Amino acid sequence: MTHASPRAVTLARQADCGRRESTLAANEADGRTTPKHEPRTHELPPGQFVSDDLRSDTRRFLAEVKDVVRRRSEAGLGRGR
After folding, report:
1. Fewer CB near the last or first residue (10 Å), C or N of the chain?
2. What angle separates helix 52-74 from helix 6-29, to the nearest 10 degrees?
């Protein structure tokens, strides 16, 4: 079993974010809108970090996970189904 390096994981996550932004831009160009959420930039992720980049990546990752959980809950796919 092989494991991806932290750098490879970060690059893959950034590529995924780029694809998502392209999709959002295309939706807006077609007149479809997506809900706007205000990120809580004042809220720091838990833990100690060796760099600002890692802190930023962690904050973005946690925001994405919370968004997935929210969307699953709204779609009725939560734990209590």
Report:
1. N
2. 50
Same domain? 26 vs 65: no
Whether 79 has a pLDDT exceeding 60, the answer reads yes
Gap between the Cα atoms of 58 and 50, Å rounded? 12
Residues 63, 45 share a domain: yes
User: 15 is in which domain, residue-wise?
Assistant: 1-34
* This model's pTM is above 0.85: no
- How does residue 29 score in pLDDT terms, banded at 50, 70 and 90? confident
Q: Which of 41, 78, 79, 75 is nearest to 60 (CA)?
A: 41
Distances (CA, A) of 6 to 12, 13, 14, 23, 46: 10, 10, 12, 26, 19
